[in-house]
Structures are given as C-alpha cells and as structure tokens.
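Entry for NDP complex. Fields follow.
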Amino acid sequence: MSDRYAVIGNPIGFSKSPLIHSTFAKMTGQDLVYEAIEAPLGGFNARVDQFRTEGAKGLNITAPFKLDAFAYANELSESADRAGAANCLKFEGDRIIAENFDGIGLVRDITVNLGVKMAGRRVLMLGVGGAARGALLPFLRQEPSELVLVNRTLSKAVALAEEFAGCGPLIVSGYAELADLAEGYDVVVNATSASLRGEMPPLPGNVFRGSELAYELAYGKGLTPFLQAARAEGVAKLADGVGMLVEQAAEAFAWWRGVRPGTAQVIAELTVPLS
Ligand code: NDP
C-alpha cells in the first residue's frame, strides 16, 4: 500500500498542496498518495486521530489549524517551537513531530529563486501574524543589518520583538514613523493579510526608495495594492508567495521522504502573472 499524506484545513478546496506533492512524488519516483482533508472547526484532533489510525505518515496544515497542530504534537522542532505554530507533522509510531517550514520556504524563495541577498541588507516586514512569526528566525539567520517589524497594532509587534530579543538586530516601528525615513529598505515583505481583501497597509511610498525586492506573501492574486505601490515607486523585482508555498512543500517532502524535489517546474506551473 502507498504511504498516505494529506493537507488539512478549513476550507481546503483552494489548496494547491495535493497537486504540488503529487508532482513531487512523480518527479522523485516516490510511492505515496496525498489527499485534502477539510476538518470541521473544533474538530482537528478527532480528524487527525482518525487519519493516523488509517496509517497516515504525515500532514501539512493550513489555516485555521496551525495552532491546533502545534498543540497536538508531542515533539517540536526549533522552528515550530519558536513560531508557536506547526505547518507540518510527521507520524512515527507514537511520535507526532511538528515542524514549521513557512519561514525557511520564504527565505529560500527570496535568496535562491529570486537571487536576493538578505545578509547585510535592510529588511522591512509588514505584519506580525502567524506567517511573519515563522519567518522571524529564518530571516535573522540570514544576518540582515536590520530587520524592522511594523504592525497596525503596534503592541503585538513589541511583544513579538521581546520574544526574539537577543536573536538579532530587530527593530519595531509604527507605520506613521516610517514616513520620516531618509532611505528605503532593500527588501520589503508584506506578511499582512491585507491583500486578501484587496487592501493596502498604510505604508508610505518612501520605504521603497532604492529597494531591490518587494515580496507579497499572498499568492495567485496578481498585482496586489502592495505590489502596485512598489511598482509605482520603481522597485525592480516584484514577487508573490507562490515560490514560498512550493519551497515549504519541498522542505516537507524532503523531511518525510528523504529526497528533495526540484521546485522550478511546479513554481512555473502555479505562477499567476503579476500584471
Ligand atoms: P494573520 O491573520 O495571522 O496576520 C494578519 C496580519 O496582517 C496582522 O499583523 C494584521 O495586523 C495585519 N493586517 C491585516 N489587515 C491589515 C491592513 N488592512 N493593514 C495593515 N495590516 C493588516 O495572517 P497570516 O500571518 O496567517 O497570513 C498573512 C499573509 O501571508 C496572508 O496573505 C496569507 O495568505 C499569506 N501566507 C502565505 C503563505 C505562502 O506559502 N505563500 C503561507 C502562509 C501565509 P493586526 O495585528 O494589526 O491585526
């Protein structure tokens, strides 16, 4: 029997993970089946218990269950522990091991696929929700000269920065304060959920002065208001989160199967043009 994996979320119909992992399995000759599970809200544990009794080997987790998956695990990787959330589980007998590959997927897309160095650069991250949280440690490990966190609700950014105090050059700012900056940021990352509603964080245009990359974590939405603003300010490289999605999937696949698939073909297939 083929090994079983799945992505779990609610809703799940939009998920690209079955397509991504089935393609990876074909590319690497791995014998597995990968399905999509929609668990009822409040029903994560029962549904995962059932999947495990059916012999499942692992799960990807998407909204709104990343905190449930974190609580369900009995072993945490450092990245899951630091993020306080899990986007991937591996089942080995009684072991339920949690990982979080969102941050490393984002860093790989920026530094490898897009060829933008973060080391020694000034990086601005908008938003401090789940995705930003998972990205903090992988970003700091790239050794930027500074990593500025900005959030609509400033107190959340302050609390997050306190948690990561001593891990690197982390600075907190409100949106309004950014207007006084003399120079822009090399890399500007939109980790807010504003684009999902066609909204723009209250970001002054000067942050894009001299920027090499504007990165939008949401994907498949074309030119979001954030990317439009970056383009209007002359930013040369614009990207959305499709590469991050595929890279975190490749990390999960490698963790489960011991073989890392190439990602370029799948990223190309899933990319919605930014126009
Ligand atoms: P969360 O709900 O955890 O966090 C939302 C964040 O966005 C908060 O910081 C919130 O600020 C901020 N925000 C929301 N609306 C606005 C607005 N209008 N103006 C300014 N700030 C705003 O979301 P996630 O971290 O889970 O997801 C963030 C984004 O990342 C989404 O677009 C999601 O689709 C994408 N994502 C992409 C992935 C990929 O693989 N490409 C993986 C995971 C997420 P406040 O605290 O003030 O409310």
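NOTE: The first helix runs from residue 17 to 28.
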